[in-house]
Amino acid sequence: MPQLQHDVDRLIEAFHWEQGGWDYLCRAVKHIPRVSPSTRHVAILALHAASRRGIDVPTNLLKRVEAATIASQQDSGGWSYHAGDTPTGSMTAAGVFSLVLVDDLLNPQHKQNRRTRQRNEALQRGLAWLDERFEASPCPGLGRCEKYPMYWLYSLERMALATGCRRLAGRDWLRDATAVTLDRLCRQDRAGHWTAKKGDSLSKLRTRCFALMFLHRGRLPLACAHLRFESDAVAGDVASSLVANLLRHHEQETSWQWVDLDDPVQAWLESPMLIVSGAGEPGFLRANRRNINAHLRDPDSVPLPEIPEVNRIADYLRRGGLLVVVASGGGFDRAIKQIGSLAAPHATWQRLSRDHPVASLLSPVRHLPRLEALSTPNRSLIVLIRGPSDEVMLNLWAIATERHVFPSRLEMSRKMKSTSVSGPQRGVVFAADPNDCVERAAADAFAAWCKRTGRHAVVDDATLPENGDDELLVIQTAAHQPDWRLVEHALNEGRVVLITGQTDMVERIKADASKAGLTLKPARSAPWVTATDLPGCRDLSAPGWRPGSRQRGLGSAGLDLIAADHAGGGTLILSPSDLCHALLDRPCWGIHGYDADTARHLLWNLANWSSTYPAGKEPSHATMDMVDDRDRGGNGAADRPLAVAAAHGWGVD
Q1: Between these two residues, 569 and 22, which has the higher pLDDT value?
Q2: Residues 6 or more apart whose Cβ sits within 8 Å of residue 366
Q3: Are 323 and 259 in contact (CB under 8 A)?
Q4: How much is the pTM?
Q5: CATH code of the domain made up of 225-412
């Protein structure tokens, strides 16, 4: 700390109060020939880092830097290396970043008493300049930045991460800048192997240093994304506060980004949770008010209104997303509840109390605000906060990440090309009652994985018929007593039925199976677990578990499965541990079960086994631990389709 204090004292002593900046050599001089945004940027970055370690930074110095930075902004919105020069990308990024850092250093008391309109306008004009002219290479405006191309990308990254910027000029700036950086650092041969470019000159050393700093920061995971409901929303205080608090209290480096209502849902899913804040009714609801009211009054007769924004939110929730809403009055909370009713009509709102993980999972909340959640039997879809949100937000982040490292944005947004499909076709059908709260995106997620990895699969998502005559049976049981007659009908037809979930409905299925004379046994050595005689399948004797399950010591050494062969030729498999939510590959604290990789391969193993060893063999289908190899093999009967029954919610009362 003494050395850090010494460095801060030197920066303060070298600061030129009249010109509002620093000399390049950090000396106290009478006049600075060029007060560059780049020197302000680096000096303020150093003071910001010192402040995080408890060193005080004079408020009047910060205000002077802010005023000088705003005064040096040109009419176009950009900044230049020297007054009167042409604005450049690197200097504009440095100017915007300096304003953000100064604003963060000015503590809440000063924020409340100071006028921020001029600062906000300058920041938005700088972002607009970059948005109009962005190119990863060459640097917009060229000038001196042509000589230092990696400083442009470094300052761009620091600015974009600090402001939550995701796209510039309609492009993913991080992906474009990473490609340019790798091209400057490395060369790639025809086989796709990378090797570092050599060179010992000062220029190459400088390039290498800025490139490595860029790549390091670019790998930071996103803590959240802030969904912009209206085009004039400019504040991301909730998201930036979460990032700051994770670093300050838990030494967890993260970032955040803005997303818009018209962005693809995949962009929303790049972060563990989506934050919305606002006041009043959003315009897209106001424009459809009559149709919304009519549907909510009589949902059975009046169809759900087609509102693209609501449909996109519904898709996000369906695919495992968590929407966190910070309401600030004006009917915004009522609007969110209506969005929830439209997007997830079968989920229910409930008050969250202190016994919920949101009150203590990562940090105990001293003053719990009013919290409500729109939830299914498995997870919360929307959390509505009325009151101070900082403490609660840390725990919501822990819930949304399962207190585990979330992938970086580059990893999450990587577009994976599909491999050519090969091998025999396998069929899997997910079915559910249309009125139940189940993981309806599980089928799509599994189908996408099969396509991405070159597996030849036909995956359907269907409504379960009451007569049980459908070729592939999927029962989802969370809210109703399951109908054993449908299960037994499928087993009599030689089908494989997999029931998975975390509810007591699995226990009820076990009781029904016992009454029907089925003896359920652990299936840890079954051929569809060990992949015995199943080419292209994976041995799952040592399965992977969700991070939350591992942290709570709930993951067992083997798959948590019991199974029984039915006299009719079918096989019943029960898994009390989650399978369907795992297919979404989204963390969520409180769900116990397998990780996504194990869930996918378990289904693929079963799909292959049910097709490779059809019904009708004697004496059994070799599902249990004791297996007679002589009984394996087909007998000319039709392949048995795999029915996946997720124990989340359907049955006949």
Answers
A1: 22
A2: 391
A3: no
A4: 0.88
A5: 3.40.50.12140
